[in-house]
Description:
By secondary structure, chain A is mainly alpha-helical. Chain A is built from 13 helices and two strands; from the N terminus they run αββαααααααααααα. Chain A has two domains: 19-63, no CATH class; 77-300, MetI-like (MetI-like fold), CATH 1.10.3720.10. In chain A, 73% of the residues lie in helices and 3% in strands. Chain B has 16 helices and 14 strands. Chains A and B meet through β1, α5, α7, α10 and α11 of A and α3, α4, α10 and α15 of B.
Amino acid sequence: MATTEGDAAAPQRRAAWILLAPFLVLFLGTFVAPIGYAIYQSFIRVERAGLFGEEGTTSSFAGLRNYAEAFANNEFVGSIGQMFLFGVVQVPVMIAAATVLALLLESASARWPAAFRAAYFMPYGVPGVIASVLWSFLYVPGLSPIIDVAALVGIDIDFLGPSMVLWSIANIVTWTYTGYNMLIIVAQLKAIPAEIYEAARVDGAGPLRVAGSVQLPLIRPALLLTIVFSIIGTLQIFAEPQILQQVSTAVGNEYTPNMAAFDAAFNYNDYNLAAAEAVIIALTAFALSFVFLRLTNRGQR
Amino acid sequence: MRSRAAKEHGVQWSRRTALQAGLGLGAGALVGACGSGRAADPDGSVHLTYWSWLKDLQLVCDVWNAQRPDVQVEAVWIQPGPDGGYQKMFSALATGGGPDLAQVELRQTPAFLLVDGLVDTRRYGADAVLDRYEQAILGQVTFNDAVYALPQDWGPTAWFYRTDLLEEIGAEPPQTWPEWAELAREFRATDRYLDIFNPSDGSYFAALAMQAGATWFAIDDDTWVVSIDDDATLETADFFDRAVREDLVSTSLAPFSPGWFAAANEGRLGACMSASWADALIEGAAGTAGLWQVAPMPRWDGGYGSAQLGGSTTAVFSTSPHPAEATEFAIWMTTAPEAIDAQIEHSGIGWSPVPDHIGTPREQPSEFFGGQRYNEEVFVPAAEQQHPDWTWAPTTQQVFNELSDGFVRAVSGGSSLVEACRRTQTAAVEMLTDKGLNARAA
Lengths: 301, 442
């Protein structure tokens, strides 16, 4: 009996592998292999003889030397700290704004919710590079109408100065992604069954009470999802500061972790260091997301 | 989800993008020419490919092509080197499929030697013309007695200033840097800035230190000797530390950025320390025609009359199957009067690398600069008063970035330029040893 069962299962198992093969090939080739190669590269270093290596070069196992170099680079470590500060402020602001917008659009008294939903989502359709170019014109002294108007009422504001530029970037990021996060939350709000609202109304709950006691607890999974996405996204900010670098002297070449890795790879030709930095960025994003989920799970219990 | 990091849009400020696009924000991101196909030679003629970010370079190559049916050169536009062009060249060299010739900045040539990317032009007849180049500039591409690239253009520095604004307060162009500081103070009293200090570009400070007589890199046998903390450098840094602290210079306007042009057009800037190629950029401040002139740099007690800011070479790649023909073309490109004139006319190149021909268009007086013949009056002498022993390291870009990161911190109040130089000195030695090279502090 056992053998016949096994024989029957074997072709099925083969079929499963065949059907999985396209996925596996792509997954291994475009996901596992590049990550594995980056990790491998992060443990290699090159030695050169002569002024330029004209008398020969050798590659060797570097141990953790590239990682030590990355951590010894104050700019790189500082950029992670910088993004931490950025995230602590920008992510709550953005998620709060997205939640409020979503609740307003899903409230019974909302007018033209579809039109507003599309309008709020629209910035997400603008590529980050273009958004940064557009905003940079609103930040540059002499071109920006905002600065001119602020000057009229006696406020001297420098959007691109060292103390402000981080928040100018945060503004672009918030502008771009609030609508996107709002949409995720709206989708979850729409999934709340009408009976729950009815029950709440029967119990005499007003709109605020419904939002606080019914909607917020029920959209918790969507909120967690958007926050984790935002934490990961914060560590990966690249296009906005890279563009603002052209108009702001306060944005260095290693202003964000991704810019630092980019710098190591393509300005210095040091792919091994860049690989180490990339691994560190990925692990940091992973650790932060994990810690956040652990903390929120504990809160739930 | 913010991770749509557009790596291909690695737009950094560069004066060439500015030159091509005026106020071109993000202009460097627009085009990405490609193609390194090496055409077959059916009639026995040689076909060379030439990567460069100079505009309309093909028009210059066509002058050569008309004379030399046996060696045809095709110019391929690529992104400016620091904006992704070098990345493209490095990967081409790694795969062996790159162009025969490429534009490489003077300061970047040692980095190409790290990957064994350049041909010694002396092996293919460059000896015949070496004495025609500005020797201080030629020295920057000469290593181990080999000349690894031929200088194509460069930028001797001088002092561009607004005659009307100086006259308003009865001032003359300053002869010395202390006089410059005094003038900057008078300018601040009228709520204007005399000039800017650009903390985000290391090459700008390198030019100031070079003029003061600094020597950041030297070669001792097979060892790099680093001294970014020598007296001349630290004195220059200290001078500008005081200028920044006293708010004598604007540190928030990147040169030739939209904000800079707005300030220049509104008469909020009195001068611009820059190189010869800045003339075309300053002409972008269209409202100020006829109001600018050029004076020699303010001087230190020691040091030199001018310095070098920017500059490129025509380099022959080691992967080229036709190094002799490519070198022959590079020699023509960088020394023939008709080639230099054509590059000025079509491509807007910087200062001519050969003192015996500054370029016919540059012998004319300029209307924008108040009818001054500034090229002959100011830049010809400036080109002769250069640091003769300046050397770039294979890590120049990295050093500049380290320096500018430190400078950005300094002007935001956390530190000082002097401190940034000291830290860069330590870091620069490490950068070289991290590349697997021998290096020590001076």
